[in-house]
């Protein structure tokens, strides 16, 4: 084929990008494209923006970095704004492309958009080929079909670890042939309907978007500091840059792939030795896989009040006052408040914090969990549709928790994980 389009989505990287690699091998010329989907900047039925300013800023940085990396290979990134089903076909006609390559989607809205693009391209006699690029284990390599994947993570993990292998990451291309492409032009946050929000100086880490920054963070956490060797012991801490890997934002935007991280863990283990901590990071990547495969299995169910449970649960109403107190960190719990203020001021919260504020929302405030999930969707830099809604459903007792309902004793959690009140003092001063 002469010309193909690579439609980048949440796979904003050059390394281990099968979509890009496939397109290069099948084409004479490549047109790399990103579409700022209007739907991603709308307000949801819950009253929150789908994308808040922290994540939008991270996205714009990631696109700038991708363009820089593409230019180094002889290409550029073409950025358009609008509906993908309108904008992608326009580019197909402009560049006379015979095929569009893109990352495969599993969540409902993303999948629907993919189908609309496919239909529009079909009318132009242009094919859309999608490639699975988001998980550690490829769906085809799992020891069960998607519909038969165990709903319990432990069973999924044990069987997968025993019977499946992780594929090697794809090498970065050395060169990309492209037609003459325009210089990158990105909209401002204001043009996206957002206000620029300065990240609080107390932030555990200042996330900067892009593959370059993702690789820099990996090098720092693995090889410069060897923090990976103590990851399991420190991952539940709440203050500081290196208590956890902090890869989540780059993983969510696809600036780095789980398979690439896995390959680097193996290099690290051969250099510094394997232990429980080096395994535990793989374990966490497996959780990410699990929720993605669950979304493929259950489609829209993760967005329902009753989640993936068959029995209808009592609908909980929304209390605007309690929701506002939770968002603004003015509840009766100083531990919850500190976590919620951190989220509001930085777009990030520790894993331990997330579990506690979600449990508090569902159990103490007794509100419909989907409002909490929707607020996280707006606020989090590292928002990932499957991990966010999957984890919220889990904590609300309507997801994959085999125990049915998980309740956190907030005071005990605060005393266990913030014994010296270091975290609370930092955010409640």
From TrEMBL:
Protein name per the record: Cryptochrome DASH
- Give TM segment ranges: none
Q: What Pfam families does this protein map onto?
A: DNA_photolyase, FAD_binding_7
Residue limits of the Photolyase/cryptochrome alpha/beta domain? 2-136
Is Flavoprotein one of the keywords? yes
Tell me one GO molecular function of this protein: DNA binding
Question: Superkingdom, according to UniProt?
Answer: Bacteria
Q: Which PANTHER family match?
A: CRYPTOCHROME, CRYPTOCHROME DASH
Q: What role does it play?
A: May have a photoreceptor function.
Any GO BP: photoreactive repair
């Amino acid at each position: 084929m002469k010309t193909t389009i690579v439609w980048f989505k949440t796979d904003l990287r050059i390394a281990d990008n099968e979509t890009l690699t496939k397109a290069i091998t099948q084409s004479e010329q490549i047109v790399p494209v990103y579409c700022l989907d209007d739907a991603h900047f709308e307000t949801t039925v819950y009253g929150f923006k789908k994308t808040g300013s922290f994540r939008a800023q991270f996205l714009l940085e990631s696109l700038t970095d991708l363009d820089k990396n593409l230019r180094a290979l002889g290409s550029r990134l073409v950025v358009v704004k609008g509906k993908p089903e309108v904008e992608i076909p326009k580019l197909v006609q402009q560049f006379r492309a015979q095929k569009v390559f893109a990352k495969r989607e599993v969540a409902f809205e993303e999948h629907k958009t993919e189908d609309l693009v496919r239909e529009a391209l079909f009318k132009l006699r242009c094919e859309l080929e999608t490639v699975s690029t988001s998980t550690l284990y490829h769906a085809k390599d799992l020891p069960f079909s998607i519909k038969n994947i165990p709903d319990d993570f432990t069973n999924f993990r044990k069987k997968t670890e025993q019977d499946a292998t992780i594929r090697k990451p794809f090498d970065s291309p050395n060169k990309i042939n492209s037609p003459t492409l325009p210089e990158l032009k990105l909209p401002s946050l204001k043009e996206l309907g957002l206000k620029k929000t300065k990240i609080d100086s107390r932030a555990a880490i200042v996330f900067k978007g892009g593959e370059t920054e993702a690789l820099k963070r990996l090098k720092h956490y693995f090889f410069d500091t060897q923090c990976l060797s103590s990851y399991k012991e420190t991952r539940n801490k709440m203050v500081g840059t290196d208590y956890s890997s902090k890869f989540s934002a780059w993983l969510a935007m696809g600036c780095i792939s789980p398979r690439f991280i896995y390959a680097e863990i193996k290099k690290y283990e051969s250099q510094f030795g394997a232990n429980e901590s080096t395994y535990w990071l793989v374990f966490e990547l497996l959780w990410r896989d699990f929720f993605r495969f669950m979304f493929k299995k259950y489609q829209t169910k993760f967005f329902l009040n009753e989640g993936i449970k068959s029995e209808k649960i009592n609908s909980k109403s929304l209390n605007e006052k309690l929701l506002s107190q939770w968002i603004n960190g003015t509840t009766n719990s100083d531990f919850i408040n500190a976590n919620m203020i951190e989220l509001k001021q930085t777009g990030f919260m520790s894993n331990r914090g997330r579990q506690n504020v979600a449990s508090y929302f569902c159990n103490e405030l007794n509100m419909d969990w989907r409002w909490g999930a929707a607020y996280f969707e707006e606020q989090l830099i590292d928002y990932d549709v499957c991990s966010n809604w999957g984890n919220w459903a889990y904590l609300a007792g309507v997801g994959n928790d085999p125990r049915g309902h998980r309740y956190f004793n907030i005071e005990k959690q605060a005393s266990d994980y913030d014994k010296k009140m270091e975290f609370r003092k930092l955010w409640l001063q």
